[in-house]
Design a protein that fits this description.
With about 400 residues, this protein is an alpha/beta fold. About 35% of the residues lie in helices and about 25% in strands. The protein folds into three domains: about 100 residues, Rossmann fold; about 80 residues, ATP-grasp fold, A domain (Dna Ligase, domain 1); about 160 residues, 2-Layer Sandwich (D-amino Acid Aminotransferase, Chain A, domain 1). α3 packs antiparallel against α5 and α5 crosses α6.
């Protein structure tokens, strides 16, 4: 395959890298963690270690500028999490001199990441979001309780650093819950004060009944005229933990109503660039509720690429000036699996709750899949990850394992 003259600089995970394999595009990986499994992928022409995006932001930007100065023809820039999105957005004026990327204006990015500001954005554009209250509106947990309906969801304004908070480590027992659900007054008061330790401002949100299987996502890339160049829809099969958790098993589905609704909402906001919208089906009111907007590339893009719509590659072609016809045709016969996380989800959640037995879980794993880290043609990220986990085992546990 003929090599694309425009390079791609990836600030993302293994899933992002694999969107570019067999495309003819030379990729350079910029990462802050030397132990990141992505560092060991064979699908990148080069790897660079840069400063941490959060703790050493200024140096991280200088490192990215240095990389951009070395590469020809302003390479395309890709980012896969909120902290990178925020940093790039806040430094877009200087970074755009060395890289090509397309994203909404800075205030929109801030609005989508900060949950309190997202509430204002929702009101401004009349988005179909759950009823949301701000913790700063109340002097105490008791006062806030008088204004809410149970059950309700308490969420930090930003998830950056959230998974290392006491709320997650102690209350959620280390399970990566994005929010905490209160079912009664005592739970609400306790969680209100606990989350306030992480940040003085957070949101209290209407809890939409139904499991994670009721969550659908819309994925797309919009050009400078807010026209979609590609889109697909997906559905969560399982998460860890079961409620408000991270994705462990995903599939693509054909949901025309989600495509229609997602496209309509984004065009109303004049959106540009990569995006993921999360919706939850509210069966009581027969509607889809918008949960969040992620204005970046995501792990779903790998499943999309394996199923016929490669959003990062489409973005790359657009950024180098190619004309792109709208792509909406994709297969639904492949699933994305994070095996270790899904096993924990089954053992700690789905089996104890009675939602799934062992036969049902094993049967669900049949069929064609792509994995969060493992790939037959690129095994080193998985092997390095497992080796590091093995080496980190306590000596006593390791001796038992070796018996």
């Amino acid at each position: 395959m003929k090599k694309d003259p425009l390079m791609a600089v990836l600030c993302g995970s293994v899933s992002m890298i694999r969107c570019f394999r067999n495309t003819g595009i030379d990729c350079l990986l910029a990462l802050s963690d030397v132990n990141d499994p992505a560092r060991f992928s064979r699908h990148c022409a080069g790897k660079r270690i840069i400063a941490d995006w959060v703790s050493d932001t200024e140096r991280a930007i200088n490192d990215m500028i240095a990389i951009g100065m070395e590469l020809p023809d302003r390479p395309a820039l890709y980012y896969g999490d909120d902290k990178k999105l925020l940093t790039i957005s806040r430094n877009r004026d200087v970074l755009s001199q060395y890289y090509r990327f397309l994203m909404p204006d800075a205030s929109f990015i801030e609005d989508t990441i900060d949950k309190a500001r997202f509430s204002d954005l929702s009101a401004r554009y009349d988005l179909p979001t759950p009823k949301t209250l701000l913790s700063s509106s109340f002097a105490s947990a008791s006062e806030a309780f008088e204004a809410v309906e149970l059950p309700c969801l308490l969420k930090p304004n930003s998830h950056i650093g959230w998974f290392k908070s006491r709320a997650v480590i102690e209350y959620a027992k280390g399970q990566p819950q994005k929010g905490l659900v209160a079912h009664n007054r005592d739970e609400f008061v306790f969680l209100f004060d606990l989350i306030r330790e992480f940040g003085s401002e957070f949101v209290i949100q209407e809890y939409i009944e139904g499991g994670e299987e009721e969550i659908y996502s819309y994925h797309a890339y919009f050009d400078e005229d807010s026209m979609p160049l590609a889109c697909f829809t997906g559905k969560k099969i399982r998460t860890y933990p079961m409620s408000c958790g991270e994705s462990s098993f995903l599939e693509l589905v054909k949901e025309p109503e989600i495509i229609r609704l997602g496209t309509e909402l984004l065009q109303k906001m004049n959106f540009v660039g990569p995006v993921k919208l999360d919706f939850k089906r509210d069966s009581r009111r027969n509607r889809y509720v918008l949960l969040e907007i992620n204005a970046r590339f995501t792990l779903w893009n790998y499943l999309g690429a394996a199923s016929g719509i490669n959003i990062p590659h489409i973005a790359h072609r657009y950024l180098q000036g190619d004309r792109i016809a709208l792509q909406t045709d994709y297969r639904t016969d492949t699933r994305w699996l994070a095996f270790g996380m899904d096993l924990r989800a089954f053992i700690r959640g789905y089996r104890p709750s009675g939602a799934l037995n062992l036969f049902g879980w094993l049967n669900s794993l049949r069929g064609k899949k792509v994995y969060s880290v493992f790939a037959w043609d690129d095994p080193m990220p998985f092997l390095s990850s497992e080796t590091r986990k093995f080496a980190a085992l306590p000596r006593k546990a390791l001796s038992k394992l070796m018996r």
